[in-house]
Amino acid sequence: CYTTHGDQKQYNRRCEDLLFQAELFAAIAAIYGLQPYPATELETAWKLVLFNQFHDILPGSSIPEVFEQANAEWQAALEMGDRILQISLQALAEHCALPSPPHPDAVPVVLFNPLNWERSEVVAIALPPALAQTFWQAQDAEGQTLPTQLEQTDSPSLLVYVPAIPSVGYRLIWLISAEVAPSSPAPVEWILENTHLQATIDPVTGGIASLIHKATGTETFQGCGNQLQVFKDEGQYWDAWNIAPDYQDHPLDAFVLKSMSWVEYGSVRQTLRVVRGFNQSTIVQDYRLEVNSPVLAVHTEVDWQETQVVLKAAFPLTVAAAEATYEIPFGAIARSTTPATPQDQAKWEVPALRWADLSDGDRGVSILTDYKHGFDARPNQLRLTLLKAPVWPDPGCDRGLQTFSYAIYPHAHSWQQAKTVRAARNFNLPIRPCLMSFSASSESNQSSASFLNLGDTGFVLSAFKQAEGSAEQYILRGYESTGLKTSLKLQGSMPMEVTEQVNLLEAPCGTQGWHEVDPWQIVSLAVSIIPVL
Which residues are within 8 A (CB) of 129 and not within 5 positions of it... i.e. 6 or more apart? Predict the structure, then answer.
C-alpha cells in the first residue's frame, strides 16, 4: 500500500506541502499587518486532508466510489490552499518596496523561499500571455546578469538560475526584454553534464549507462542505472495492500526503447527524453540536469495498462553498505540490507517519505522522490517501486495516465553531511515566483531578506502558524533531522520573540532551554510579536 493508488499519494504530498506554505506565508503576512490570518479556511482545508489520510483512503485500498469523493475533497483542499498562498505572497511582494527599475520596461519578480535554509537553484517563472511574446533576460537588484533560458513547453516559462535566496525569505530579480539568445546545438552524444555530474544515457535501453560524481571522481552505478524492471504480482488475497513475497521470482520481459531525443540543451537546463514501451504500456522519462545542481532528475509520464504487474526503477550502485536509511516522519530509520531475522526478512518492501540513501561513510547515493514511497534494498542496490496494478478492491487501480518524478543524488561522505534532507525538500518545494506590476517607491528597502532564520543546522521547520488558542501568538514547530545534537537560533526580520515551549497540543510543557535541541527532537515554540514603535 506504499505504492497503490498513486493519485492518493500525489494528492496527499501536494496538499501537505501546499498547506505548509499557505500557513507559513499567511502567518508572515498577518504579522506584518498586511491581511487577517485565514484561520477558518486553513482549518477547513486541513480537516479535508486529515480525513483522507484515514485508512483505507491514503493506502489506496478502498472501493472505487470512495476515491470519487476523496478526489473531490483533495481538490477542494488544494484550491483553498492555493488561493490563500497566492493572496499571501502577493501581499508580501507588494509590501517589498522596489528600487528604481534598471530599464523602463523591466518587470519585477519576487522569489519566495519556503524552506529554512538559503537556496541557489533554477526557478521556473510562468510568463502570462502579455509577456510571453518577448524574450527576457534576468538580472538581480545589483545589476548582475543571471543565466536565463526559455523552457521548451506549451506553457511558456523562463528558467533563471538565482543564487542565495534567503531562508524563509525572498529575493528580487528583474526581467528585461532582450534579443533572443542563440540556442546551443544539441550534442550528438547522449550526455548531460554540469559542474557536479556527468550522465551518459544508454542508447540501447534508455537507462543511465554512467553517472560520474565529479567531486569524488567516482562512477555511481555498477551496470545500468534507472533500469525499469517488471514483475508479475499475483496470488495475494490482500491485493492492494501487499506485494507478493515471491514477486522477484516472476520477472517479465524488459521495457523496449522506442525513441530518444533532446528536448532542450541550454545553459540553464538540459533535458533528454527517453520513450520506452512494455506490453500495452508506454513510459516517457525526461532526464533533466540543471546548472549547478547536484541531482539528476527523472520526470516521468506513464500510460499504464497492465494488470497485477509491479514496476520498479533499479539502481545498482558501486557503493555497498550493511544498512540503507529511509526518511520517516520527523526522522530517519536505518534498515539492514542483509536481513537475517524472520521479522526483517518479512520487510521485503519498506516505506520512505521523500528519500532513501545507501552510504558507506566515504560516499553514497540518495534517491529523492515526490510521492513514490515503496523501496527495497540490497548491500549495493536501491530500488524504487513506481507502479502496482491490483484488481481488488478497485479493479481499475492505477491504470491510465499518471506523472511523477524522482532524482538521483550521488554525494561524498554520509547522507547527513551531504544534507540529503535538504536536497529532498528542495526537490519537493520549489521556489515560488511572484510577478509584480511596478510602482515607484523607496530605494532603501532590501532587495532580499530572511523573514525567519533558524541557523545553518539540521533543524527543519515543519510549521509556522497562528496558535489555535490565541490570535496573538504563533507556533513555530520543527525537528532535528540528522540524529545529532544541535543549537536553535531565532533570527530574521520578523519582530517576534519566544514566549514559551509548548507540546504538540500547544499547551505549555515547562521545558527550559529551547536553544539546545536533542537528536531527532521535535520542538514547538509559542512566539509573540514584538510591537514596532
Answer: none
